[in-house]
Design brief:
heterodimer, A: 867 residues, alpha+beta, five-stranded antiparallel β-sheet, B: 97 residues, mainly alpha, rod-shaped, transmembrane helix (chain B), membrane (chain B), transmembrane (chain B), Ribonucl_Kappa (chain B)
Chain lengths: 867, 97
């Protein structure tokens, strides 16, 4: 299983595939997802490649599928998810599928065209119906008015009326509601107020036949006088996209027309319903297959796209491709080759051949759902160089631990645990949801990280004795106080001499500190020292991780010239500080006494570690101390400190000049040996691998022989292997390696590295103080939230308190979740990430590799889904 | 009959589960007079007077708060039932569409 310690061993393989079998073989490889193909036709443009036509056909099919899907979605037909992903279709089936798609697309297009026609017809008729109905009202009013005038005319015998009525023309129509005001104004302007416009809302929303959007329209009738105005009104109407309808002027005609229209509408409605039903039936039947088809087409497209990476043999009898394969998966690839060949019915086997290369292979870490999250954290910084030590392994523990140091609270840990458990228990259900949203996706991808972070913060919360800023008295406090003294305002200063029982609280911080006035003073100093201790250990561990790298890459000299001086520098300064912290913790206590022995180890004589440290760096003597105290914690401390500082200073030039000098010496030797290039350990190892692997391929070739196939061709292929490889690739590979580095370059590089490391020991140690700062901030914030919010509810007297508790709990819970768990959690997460990327990984991690991107249908489909 | 939406009802369920557990436990701790909660009692100012009267006041505060917490937990139980019913009816109505 040791594959998580380093990335997997990879090898470059050449695939020789018969053209008939190529499609099936690639399909099999896509299902397994174990190889990364290299593009051998990079220099060709897209149209010169061999399988352009097939790719374009797939594109066309995809376009059709997208069209059908859009139509299906428009009708709100549910597209069922497929349980089992279909395999890539047989190339013979493609034509069927293509024809089917074409037919379906044409059907749907026809449906929608005829539906649009019918609908626009329907719309016109309904509008006309509304025009007739609404205008009825206007005309009635007009007639009434006319009647009134007639009556008057009877009295006054004025003969103006028939002339006036005869000359008054009108235009009726329908216009969109939002255009009415502008329309009205325009009419008024062109006629200088001589047009009389009546309008009425249609009352029902109409549907646009093309887009299916809803429209609100208004019926209008414009009364005017004279032909010229009529043509002007018509122009305005067409300008405003108002539809005009002929409207007979007499009541009887109007009534007849209305009846006719109603009848036609009824017929049309029936036809429309039937068309809709038919369309629905077709769409539902298509929707069932839609997902299958689109998966099949994208698989097919991916296969042809990959085939475009292949070279064609001179004799055109086989396709040759190059790919990276993890060593462990070679048998899978071979099985895929055999399966692919047999399912194509080809008589000639396809086979693979491992080739030696100087090029650095891609990095591949096999992950499972638990480790993937952690690996992603590392890869976000930089993908590991090939076969470099993978920090993700240690991150699994150190990441949640450092997070928890900052986030230590049992209550908040439990809330987080609940979220993580929900995400893990309902894993399958949540994973099957589509369109979860980016933020949910991020949290879901990190669910196991969150789980571990919450478990670790339960632990640290227990050690800090914090549950929502309250402490738990699990084992019985070891401090003795009067009840009245604790309950009073502001608490009590805990002095171990007066109140401490003498035996420590079994595990974690004593609960009595919750009430102490000097709680912060105590916790500050404690957590600050703790964070330095943790940080220095973490960094030393990081420096130690360089050893596996040096050994693996056979840079043994670097252990002596890099690792040891780095270690000495870090330990002699900062590990010494850690040692001093522990000596102080063990040696001094709060015992009061009169004898000199007791006074010397009493609290008044406890020295400041920081002052010791500063004096050590400045090479100064310790200042005067109080009566009875000793200057140093032990007698030979000043001597030891001097030795340490000298050793540390010496280690810097070793780091700085060691490697360049060694380079110069070995380089001279090499020149004497006629410039023989020193063999790179990595390359050598890979050659050994490739030897083994050729054996494997030989075996398979033997197998193929037993199947009674053309042996001669195999041999011919293998002989011609070198010839087939494009010269540009061979050149590129050899060009990459063994660049002659000048001494100056090595020196400059080493100088930068040394300065960086030396300065970083100081700055990185200080950087770990963020553990203290954030942990303190978290504890204080949760304390403030409790006392400023929840406390207000709990201190209400009597049964009114119930309501107060009920309401204030909700507020407190909301802020606990939003501020303390979410915001503080994110900030602690970011700081932990920084501590890992900068402080831990900079000690040993190069991260210059490139990720292994296997050709896998699963990944391709997932990517498509995300788009 | 859905009154709150699906999100609000889920929010209500989570809040009331949290409330029931925490207030129930806090009630127990108050009932047994946990020291950690001594600062969260009504009227606990010690003015230097009769220490016995002060103690009885503190004890009364503990029991009072214990009952208050339990009743509030019961209120959250009612909230839970209500939200769960809402959630259920939301689910049903969304299924029937």
């Amino acid at each position: 299983m040791g594959s998580f310690f380093r990335s997997e061993q990879m090898s470059l393989a050449q695939l020789f595939i018969q053209p008939e079998a190529a499609y099936f073989v690639i399909s099999e490889l896509g299902e397994t997802g174990t190889v990364q193909f290299r593009d051998l036709n990079e220099e060709l443009n897209a149209f010169q490649k061999k399988f352009v036509n097939e790719v374009r056909r797939c594109d066309e099919m995809e376009r059709k599928l997208r069209y059908i899907e859009r139509e299906v979605n428009k009708d709100k037909v549910n597209i069922p998810d497929v349980r089992e992903l279909p395999r890539a279709p047989n190339p013979r089936e493609i034509i069927d599928l293509e024809a089917h798609l074409e037919k379906t697309e044409a059907d749907i297009k026809e449906f929608s065209e005829s539906a649009v026609n019918l609908k626009s017809n329907f719309l016109e008729l309904t509008e006309l119906k509304h025009v007739l109905e609404k205008t009825q009202l206007f005309f009635n009013e007009q007639d009434e008015a006319a009647n009134g005038l007639d009556n008057k005319a009877l009295i006054t015998e004025d003969s103006n009326n028939p002339i006036r009525g005869g000359r008054l023309g009108f235009v009726a129509g329908v216009i969109k509601r939002e255009r009415v005001p502008a329309f009205e104004r325009m009419l008024w302007r062109i006629s200088r107020g001589n047009i009389f416009l009546r309008q009425a809302d249609v009352g029902v929303t109409l549907e646009d036949p093309l887009t299916g959007d809803e429209m609100n329209k208004t019926v209008f009738v414009a009364f005017f006088q004279g032909e010229q105005l009529k043509s002007r009104i018509k122009k305005v109407c067409s300008g405003f996209h108002a539809s005009m309808y002929p409207c007979p002027s007499s009541i009887q005609e109007r009534d007849e027309m209305l009846q006719g229209i109603k009848l036609r509408l009824k017929d049309l409605e029936m036809v429309l319903n039937q068309t809709q039903d038919h369309r629905q039936r077709v769409l539902v039947s298509v929707a069932k297959e839609l997902q299958n088809w689109s998966i099949m087409v994208s698989k097919m497209k991916a296969i042809y796209h990959t085939l475009n990476f292949f070279n064609v043999d001179v004799t055109k009898k086989c396709l040759i491709g190059e790919c990276w394969v993890p060593l462990k998966d070679i048998h899978i690839v071979q099985k895929a080759l055999v399966d692919g060949s047999s399912s194509s019915g080809s008589s000639i086997p396809s086979f693979m051949n491992i080739i030696a290369t100087q090029e650095s292979p891609p990095t591949f870490n096999r992950t499972n759902k638990f480790t993937r999250g952690f690996q992603n954290l590392i890869d976000a910084y930089g993908v590991a160089s090939y076969r470099e030590v993978n920090p993700a392994l240690y991150t699994i523990i150190t990441f949640p631990f450092l997070f928890a140091v900052m986030f230590g609270d049992v209550g908040h840990g439990l809330v987080m645990l609940g979220c993580a458990m929900y995400m893990i228990l309902c894993e399958k259900k949540i994973a099957s949801y589509k369109h979860k949203g980016e933020i949910v996706n991020i949290f879901f991808a990190g669910r196991y990280i969150i789980l571990l972070m919450s478990l670790f913060s339960l632990y640290t919360g227990f050690i800090y004795n914090d549950i929502f800023s309250k402490s738990m008295n699990v084992f019985g406090s070891q401090w003795q106080l009067n009840k009245s003294e604790t309950v009073g305002e502001g608490g009590k200063t805990l002095d171990p001499f007066y109140y401490y029982k003498g035996t420590p609280y079994i595990m974690g911080v004593d609960p009595m500190w919750q009430f102490a006035q000097n709680k912060i003073v105590f916790l500050n100093s404690f957590k600050m020292k703790l964070s330095i201790v943790i940080g220095v250990i973490h960094m030393i561990f990081g420096v130690f991780m360089t050893i596996p790298n040096y050994i693996h890459f056979k840079k043994y000299s670097d252990i002596l010239l890099q690792f040891i001086p780095q270690m000495v520098l870090l330990c002699s300064i900062f590990f010494w500080m850690v040692v001093m912290i522990f000596i102080k913790w063990f040696k001094y206590s709060s015992i009061h006494g009169d004898t000199p022995d007791v006074i010397a180890v009493g609290s008044s004589c406890a020295p400041s570690v920081l002052i010791y440290f500063i004096n050590m760096m400045l090479l100064k003597e310790q200042g005067p101390v109080e009566y009875g105290c000793q200057k140093y914690m032990f007698d030979f401390q000043p001597v030891l400190e001097k030795i340490l500082i000298v050793v540390a200073v010496i280690s810097i030039p070793v780091m700085l000049f060691g490697k360049p000098l060694l380079f110069k010496m070995t380089h001279k030797n090499n020149v004497q040996k006629n410039g023989a290039i020193p063999s790179n350990g990595d390359v050598h190892q890979r050659q050994v691998q490739s030897l083994e692997l050729t054996k494997i391929t030989e075996q398979t070739m033997e197998n193929s022989e037993t199947n009674g196939n053309g042996v001669d061709k195999d041999v011919a292929n293998q002989e011609g292997e070198v010839v087939f490889r494009p010269s540009s690739h061979v050149k590129k590979e050899t060009g990459d390696d063994h660049e002659e580095e000048a001494f100056g370059d090595v020196m400059i590089h080493q100088a930068i590295h040394t300065i960086e490391y030396t300065l970083s020991t100081v700055s990185h140690t200080a950087s770990y103080l963020r553990l203290w700062a954030l942990s303190l901030a978290h504890a204080q914030l949760s304390d403030v939230l409790w006392t400023m919010v929840f406390n207000k509810g709990l201190t209400v007297n009597g049964y009114v308190g119930v309501v107060a508790i009920y309401l204030i709990f909700a507020v407190w819970a909301f802020f606990s979740l939003a501020i303390l768990v979410l915001m503080e959690g994110l900030s602690a997460f970011l700081h932990t990430l920084r501590l890992h990327w900068v402080e831990f990984m900079s000690k040993f991690y190069a991260g210059l590799g490139r990720a292994f991107q296997p050709f896998s249908f699963k990944i391709i489909l997932e990517e498509e889904e995300q788009e | 009959m859905p009154i709150c939406g699906p999100k609000l009802s889920i929010c209500g369920i989570i809040l009331s589960v949290w409330g029931i557990i925490q207030l129930g436990l806090m009630g127990i701790f108050y009932y047994f007079g946990a020291m950690a909660l001594a600062e969260d009692l009504p009227d606990v100012e010690y003015d230097g007077g009769d220490i016995k009267a002060f103690y009885s006041k503190v004890d009364a505060g503990y029991t009072q708060n214990a009952y208050n917490c339990w009743i509030a937990a019961l209120l959250y139980l009612a909230t839970l039932v209500f939200s769960a019913q809402q959630f259920w009816s939301n689910n049903r109505s969304s299924l029937s569409v």
